[in-house]
Structure formats: C-alpha cells, structure tokens
C-alpha cells in the first residue's frame, strides 16, 4: 500500500522514464530499507517526542475519517476524485452525503463499530475484526450489493509479471542509474517514517509492543518482491486496521501476519473480498479511527495543565490533515529539535571574583554576589591583582557556546581572567573550535585588553600557544 507522498514521487519518475522504471526503483527502495534496518536507523523514531507521535496519530485518524467517510453512506466520492470537484468545504461534502447517501448504511456502519468496541472492552484478545470481515464476506455473497469495495476499486487481483521477462524492458545508462539511486532516498525515507508510525498506531490499537526490527525486514522484503513481480514501492500502513490480534506480550508475528493479510485480501482472494459491503468496511474504519488516538493521554495532559503540549498535538494533527502525514511529522520533529537545542544552549558555569576582599561567587542571572565558602582551587599561586574565574560546568559544545560567550561579555574587566574546565564532563569534537571562538570574542570585545589571561584546563594539548 503506497503512501500519498510516495505516489507523488513515483509519478515524477514515471513521467521522466516511463512506467518500466517502477519495478527497478521498487527493488532499490527495498534494498535501501534493508540496509537501514541493518544500521538500526529505524530506532531513531524512539527519539521523536511523544507529542509528535500523538499528533500524528490524531492527524492520521482524521485523514482516514475524511478519506473514507463516504463509505458510511454507500458512496465513493472521495475515491473517484469527485469530492474535490464538487465540494468547497467538508461541511458541503457531508451535507451532500446526507442528501444522496443511504442512511441505513450509516446506521449499519455504527452498529459494526459498536460491536467491535464492545468486543474490545470485554475480550480484547479475540480477533473481532476477522469476525466482522467474515460476516461482511458472507453478506456480500448471499446479498450482493453495488455499494461494495468493487465499486470503489474495480477488479483487483494478483498478476504475475516477472521483471524483464513479461513486462516492458528498461535499458538505463550510468546517469539514469545514478539518478534512480538518488531519487530512491526520499521514497525510502517516507516509507520508513510511515511504516514506523503506522506500526506505533497498530501497537496502540492492539495494546502490545511490536517488533520494529521485524517490521523493517518485512517491508524491505515486500518491496524487493514487489519489484521483482512488477509492483510499486509500498509500506505497511494497512497494518493499523487489518489486524487487531494479541500474541503473547510481544507481537513478533504481527508484521508477517499483516503481510499475509494484504496478500490474501488484496491479492489471492481479492475477487471475493471486493464484495464486502461498504458499511462493514466503514464500521471497521470507525473502530480504528476512534481507538488509535490516545484519548487518555490527551485527558491526562488537560488534567495536569499541560495545555501547551495539547496545543502542539492539535497543530501537528492540523498539519497532517492539510499538508500530509509525513510533512507534519518532519515539521513536528524539527520543532522538537529546536526546543531541545534551546534548552541545551543554556550555559552552565560558576563565576568567582575577588573584586572585593576575599573570593566571591557571582550569580549571572541577577549579577548578585555572595562569599565563596569553599577554597577555589582554580586560582594560580602568587597571582597579582584582581581576577575572575569562569568555571565551565557540564557539557561544553557547539550548542551552548553562544550562551557562554554572552555571559563572558557581561563580566567586568579584571587583571586576570581564568577559564577553568575542571568540571566539564562532555567535550565534543567541536569544543576546540569553540574555545577559539571564546578567546577571539574576548579579544575583539576588549575584555582582556592589555591584561593577563590564563587558560587552565586538562585539555591543554588541544590549545596552541
């Protein structure tokens, strides 16, 4: 099941090279995903803040509701591109749905949803989704209706079309191969992101922890096989609602079962499953849409007065609906990274001075001073005149170096200015350049003009005399 963003990238490739390029780009994407799995890059999703993921889940649930709500009324407007042409707003669209649609279908869809929800409440481990699917299949065979999946997707089935044997031939040169290798990267990125987040959504729906390594392997193999048989790049987004099964505490088989369910539903037995009425599918989608967003988490945020986080979640959901799931995720992650960098950029340091009798510690926030009760071991012996000791604490890196520079600018001029790195616990690879920036900035702002400065540090090997 390709995502919307991937479809757009595929379309550009087809316009440039023709449809015969798609099996090859699909194989390349599958190989890239497999390599990413070996490098464990998919575990980077663990560092995405919770509110970004929750905003994605709320947004993707809203997208599914807007995209498939026509099924509830026995219509296919959103799947025939008529909705864009006919309606200027969602309000007008739903007014038209009520006027033209079958309200019996709508009530039946809510009935299927209530059945699934009751099953989830009273015996969650049982795969109720399969019961409703088999029921819909039986009803579709015994009481056929035109308002079924076939009217939305037409005839769907598996066609064996081995690459370069039965399909069109593709004869690229070196430049074309290079271009394909480059353009496969964004497709791989979008599939990785969507697959991981959809796995998290499936995890929220089933209540068990997914094996993300298994997810990546299945998606990579699925893309390689899809390319061999002349298919398109795909992700496992349908795993959110195809299965709702609990196998032990870790659902290690969820990805494999999901892949087989897609093979059965969309492939081998698609001619039969296409007869399932819309109200069955709509009820299952309602079940997914309502249960994927973590409402208890939103309620907890509201009760604990963390309304700013709630605002972030709704902003990401709004971006997801209006601009796309992947775009909203990237924007939310970038916002979280900026907030993290802002917090990390707060400098941590101690300042000691002897501008009065004795040694005093200065508070950089309000410029207040108090007597320093512990012996300052950063002062060289036999020092003459006034001095200021600026002692770095914690991490010194390229993120917080600007904060340190701003603090050093505010210090008063003294005869001796000492930079101490005794309590620096993290010193990144750009720290040497950062030290040079500090010293150059002090020189350029005349903080130590015609004065004596001593750099005291266990990292003296990195410093040039």
Automatic annotation (TrEMBL):
Location (main, coarse): membrane
Annotated transmembrane regions: 21-41, 48-68, 253-270, 276-297, 309-326
Membrane disposition: Multi-pass membrane protein
Top-level taxon of origin: Eukaryota
Pfam families: Sulfate_transp
Cellular component GO terms, alphabetical: membrane
Domain SLC26A/SulP transporter as annotated: residue spans: 16-306
Biological processes per GO annotation: transmembrane transport
Compartment annotation: Membrane
Keywords noted in UniProt: Membrane, Transmembrane, Transmembrane helix
Designated name of the protein: SLC26A/SulP transporter domain-containing protein
Organism: Halteria grandinella
């Amino acid at each position: 099941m390709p995502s919307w963003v991937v479809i757009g990238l595929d379309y550009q490739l087809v316009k440039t090279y023709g449809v015969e390029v798609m099996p090859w780009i699909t194989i390349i994407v599958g190989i890239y995903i497999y390599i990413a799995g070996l490098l464990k890059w998919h575990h980077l999703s663990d560092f995405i803040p919770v509110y970004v993921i929750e905003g994605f889940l709320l947004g993707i649930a809203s997208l599914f509701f807007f995209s498939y709500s026509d099924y509830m009324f026995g219509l296919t407007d959103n799947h025939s591109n008529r909705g864009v042409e006919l309606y200027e707003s969602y309000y007008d669209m739903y007014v038209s749905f009520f006027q033209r649609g079958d309200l019996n279908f709508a009530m039946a869809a809510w009935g299927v949803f209530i059945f699934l929800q009751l099953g989830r409440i009273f015996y969650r481990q049982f795969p109720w989704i399969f019961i409703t699917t088999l029921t819909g299949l039986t009803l579709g065979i015994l009481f056929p209706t035109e308002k079924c999946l076939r009217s939305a997707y037409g005839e769907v089935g598996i066609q064996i079309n081995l690459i370069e044997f039965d399909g069109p031939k593709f004869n690229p040169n070196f430049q074309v191969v290079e271009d394909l290798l480059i353009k496969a990267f964004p497709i791989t990125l979008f599939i990785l992101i969507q697959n991981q987040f959809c796995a998290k959504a499936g995890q929220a729906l089933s209540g068990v922890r997914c094996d993300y390594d298994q997810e990546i392997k299945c998606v990579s193999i699925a893309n390689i096989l899809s390319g061999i048989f002349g298919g398109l790049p795909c992700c496992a987004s349908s795993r959110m609602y195809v299965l709702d099964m609990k196998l032990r505490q870790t659902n290690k088989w969820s990805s494999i079962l999901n892949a087989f369910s897609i093979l059965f539903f969309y492939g081998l037995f698609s001619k039969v499953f296409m007869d399932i009425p819309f109200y069955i599918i709509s009820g299952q989608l309602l079940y997914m849409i309502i249960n994927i967003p973590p409402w208890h988490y939103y309620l907890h945020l509201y009760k604990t007065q963390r309304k700013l986080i709630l605002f972030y979640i709704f902003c990401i959901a709004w971006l997801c609906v209006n601009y796309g799931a992947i775009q909203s995720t990237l924007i939310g992650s970038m916002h979280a990274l900026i907030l993290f960098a802002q917090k990390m950029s707060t400098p941590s340091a101690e300042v000691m001075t002897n501008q009065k009798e004795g040694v005093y510690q200065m508070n950089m926030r309000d410029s207040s001073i108090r007597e320093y009760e512990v012996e300052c071991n950063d002062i060289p012996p036999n020092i003459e005149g006034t001095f200021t000791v600026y002692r770095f604490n914690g991490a010194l890196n390229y993120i917080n170096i600007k904060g340190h520079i701003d603090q050093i600018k505010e210090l008063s001029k003294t005869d001796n200015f000492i930079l101490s790195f005794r309590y620096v616990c993290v010193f990144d690879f750009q720290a040497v350049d950062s030290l040079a920036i500090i010293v150059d900035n002090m020189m350029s702002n005349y903080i130590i003009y015609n004065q004596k400065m001593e750099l005291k540090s266990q990292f003296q090997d990195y410093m040039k005399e």
